[in-house]
Design a protein that fits this description.
Layout (H helix, E strand, L loop, with lengths): L2 H16 L16 E4 L2 E5 L12 H14 L14 H14 L3 E5 L2 H11 L6 E5 L4 H8 L12 E2 L4 H10 L6 E6 L11 H11 L2 E5 L14 H4 L8 E5 L9 E5 L1 H10 L1 H5 L5 H16 L2 H19 L12 E6 L1 H13 L2 E2 L2 E2 L9 E5 L7 H18 L2
Parallel strand pairs: 2-11, 4-5, 4-6, 6-7, 7-8
Antiparallel strand pairs: 1-2, 3-9, 8-9, 10-13, 12-13
The protein binds pyridoxal-5'-phosphate.
The site of pyridoxal-5'-phosphate has 14 residues, from helix 4.
Length: about 400
């Protein structure tokens, strides 16, 4: 054991603790759901992305069991070397129909899809133009590319600022490709990207549009098909990323677009080329999840009725939900220490809702991030609301 390495690690961890940035995962003792057992305690869980309750849906579970009988548990190889089973192919065909695009390529995660697709479509003659609140997986994907992208060089626009985007587009005409990348729904604020304006500007300036729909998959658009569907921009968004790990309840990420995009990523998407494909059970469970999304409107209806109830109840009680428009509902606190204290007090009340503080969001913009879902009952949400009110009253704010 290299002792100086271990003391370096411990010093870094000590720094995180001193800055209140140290994370300890809580342990779920039950399946994902609206009300769960976590660290041995029963709580209403407001910090899950299981938007449609599909992570433990009986039909999805059954499809997974059947797939194990049919296919075993592993793909055995990287996809292009022999790890693509019929069930993987069927999932991609189903997703392409669902998205109304020519083709879809599945990666093992949404993070992996960004880390694979973004560098693959960029060269050193290109520039990436980003919203300042883009997700970490977009930022890492961009960093893996040889393109220009830096904020300090003027290629990052203030959150949803379309005038700033336009002026960057005016100033970058010498690049071979300009790729505008944005979250479809922003993961910490729950607001929606102004995609119609982004697409208009891209068409005007001949730029490529890349949308990360992780938090819109299963949430916005027809049957949850995402922001392109929500804004009826079919055929006008070049690259759409979706996740299969959040609303679809299992695991994975995909890129939807033209057939040539899929072809190119099969040949140049490094996580696809060098990492083993999903276990077949994952693909089969996802096909079952997609069946439910396409044929049963109930989970999405319940997600949205719970979302409307939760947002208006919070607003009526005087909480600031920061203009969020989707199930992601931040409850504004401001001070970091107070947000962390509030999280602990909510936990004591039987509500699990994580505080989000700097550097995930700006300094002094701490919040409790809540996500109602189809897995919550009215009683769960009413219980959580009372807890929020009691904690606020105790804190005297
Ligand atoms: C969660 C998330 C991802 C990563 O998706 P996984 O499937 O969990 O790896 C990518 N982008 C955004 C915006 C996300 O919120």
């Amino acid at each position: 054991m290299n002792t100086s390495f271990e003391s370096w690690l411990n010093a870094q961890i000590g720094d995180l603790k001193a800055q209140n940035l140290y994370k300890v995962p809580k342990i779920l003792n039950s399946p994902a759901g609206g009300r769960v057992t976590m660290n041995g305690k029963e709580v209403v869980n407001l910090s899950s992305n299981n938007y449609l309750g599909l992570a433990n849906h009986p039909k999805v579970r059954q499809a997974a069991l059947d797939a194990i009988e049919r296919w075993g548990v592993g793909a055995g190889a990287v996809r292009w070397i022999g790890g693509t089973m019929e069930v993987h192919q069927e999932l991609e065909e189903r997703l392409a129909k669902f998205k109304k695009t020519e083709a879809v390529l599945v990666f093992t995660g949404g993070f992996t899809a960004n880390a694979g697709a973004i560098p693959a479509i960029l060269t050193d003659r290109d520039v990436v133009i980003s919203d300042e609140l883009n997700h970490a997986s977009i930022i890492d994907g961009v960093r893996l590319s040889p393109a220009k992208y830096k904020k300090s060089e003027g290629y990052v626009y203030p959150h949803k600022d379309m005038e700033a985007l336009e002026s960057i587009l005016k100033n970058t005409q010498s690049f071979e490709k300009r790729v505008i990348i944005t979250d479809g729904v922003f993961s910490m604020d729950g607001d929606i990207a102004p995609l119609p304006t982004i697409v208009d500007l891209a068409e005007q300036f001949n730029a490529v549009v890349y949308v990360d729909d992780a938090h819109s998959s299963g949430v916005l658009g027809k049957n949850g098909a995402g922001t392109t569907s929500h804004f009826d921009l079919y055929g006008r968004v070049d690259v759409q990323l979706g996740t299969l790990s959040k609303a679809l309840g299992v695991m994975g990420g995909y890129i939807a677009g033209c057939a040539a995009l899929k072809d190119w990523l099969i040949n140049r998407g490094r996580p696809y080329l060098f990492s083993t494909g999903h276990p077949p059970v994952v693909a089969a469970a996802l096909i079952a999840a997609l069946d439910i999304m396409e044929n049963d409107p109930e989970p999405m209806n319940r997600l949205w009725s719970n979302t409307r109830w939760w947002k208006s109840a919070l607003a009526e009680a005087g909480f600031d939900t920061m203009g969020s428009e989707t199930p992601i509902t931040p409850v504004y606190v401001g001070d970091e220490g107070k947000a962390q204290l509030m999280e602990r007090m909510l936990w004591d009340e039987g509500v699990y809702a994580l505080s989000i503080v700097f550097p995930t969001v700006g300094r002094g913009k701490a919040r409790i991030r809540t996500m109602p879902s189809a897995a919550h009952t009215e009683e769960d949400l009413a219980f959580a609301l009372e807890a929020f009110k009691r904690v606020r009253d105790k804190l005297g704010a």
